[in-house]
Amino acid sequence: MAKTWEQLQETQPIVLKMFKNTILKKRLAHAYLFEGMKGAGKREASTILAKSVFCQSPVDGYIPCEDCLNCKRINSGNHPDIHVVEPDGLSIKKNQIHSLQEEFSKTGVESNKKLYMIVHADRMTVNAANSLLKFLEEPHPQTIAILMTEQSQRILPTILSRCQMISFKALSPDQMIEILTSNGVEPHMAPILAQLTNNLDEALEYSRNDWFVQAQKIVLKLYGVLKKNPLEAMVTLQEEWFFHFKEKEQVDHGLDLLLLIFKDLLYIKLGKQDQIVYLNEKIRLEQFALHSSSKQLSEQMTVILEAKRKLQANMNPQLLMEQLVLKLQEGSSFV
Hints:
The chain is α/β, with parallel strands linked by helices. The chain folds into 2 domains: about 5-165, P-loop containing nucleotide triphosphate hydrolases (Rossmann fold, 3-Layer(aba) Sandwich); about 210-330, Up-down Bundle (Zinc Finger, Delta Prime, domain 3). It is built from 16 helices and 5 strands. The chain has helices at about 5-10, 15-25, 40-55, 70-75, 95-105, 125-135, 155-160, 175-180, 190-195, 200-205, 210-225, 230-245, 250-270, 280-290, 295-310, 315-330; strands at about 30-35, 80-85, 115-120, 145-150, 165. It has a 5-stranded parallel sheet with strand order 2-3-4-1-5, with helices on both faces. β3 (about 115-120), α6 (about 125-135) and β4 (about 145-150) form a beta-alpha-beta unit. α13 (about 250-270) packs across α14 (about 280-290).
């Protein structure tokens, strides 16, 4: 999401400080490993570093100008001296690394500088990793390698030892909320999204998704009827839930949204109203919280977490939800 130096500064200030120091001191390493969870900004940071290296008029000597030909070509993904390798199917194969090596054996098209990025470096086959290792052991002058991974433990130790590792920290919920609202997400929606995902792009995609908006309404309705009687809750499952939450991943999202309701109720019981995420439902939730104990809510949350575990173990989603509704009603003082 962060496409410029200033945008990445908001989410990864430590990474940007390191970039600044090494660029100004002309001490860029020949190989970096960008490590961190999905959505932390590794790909964007790679592009920003590439622009800093190739920019024709860097601001203050290190910030990409974003206006020169090189910055524009890097942004559009067509700079001749920058190469990106991504998994071909499930893995990065030996021939992909060989093609990269051949490309780098040539003189730079426009300068002696070259940069290559390997996305999901942990998915290299053993042969590909060994080929890359030889490449890293004898780096070409003025060549920079950037490897990216969410699972650094799956990369060969011999490759790790030849890279400078840079860790990308996960965004805190508060950071997520701030960035989401600055990107036009409704203030009442941002706290929910910040709890569901740490991936900024994913959160923004959810915010624009009608399916997700409708999902929240159905989950809130299901909670509302849970306290009435088993029949009404089962009817809601049959008439609304099963039509909307069809895929396994969708059911998992639904369970996450349901779990957040119970967490909000528990926060209310504990006097932590400032931590609730269903802001538009605050008054209604405060009424619901009057009829539940902290112990009951904790037990109900445990039941939902168990349902999530069973879903991942491939239990039939329809049977799972029917059992969940009954168990939630057993643990409720409403019945």
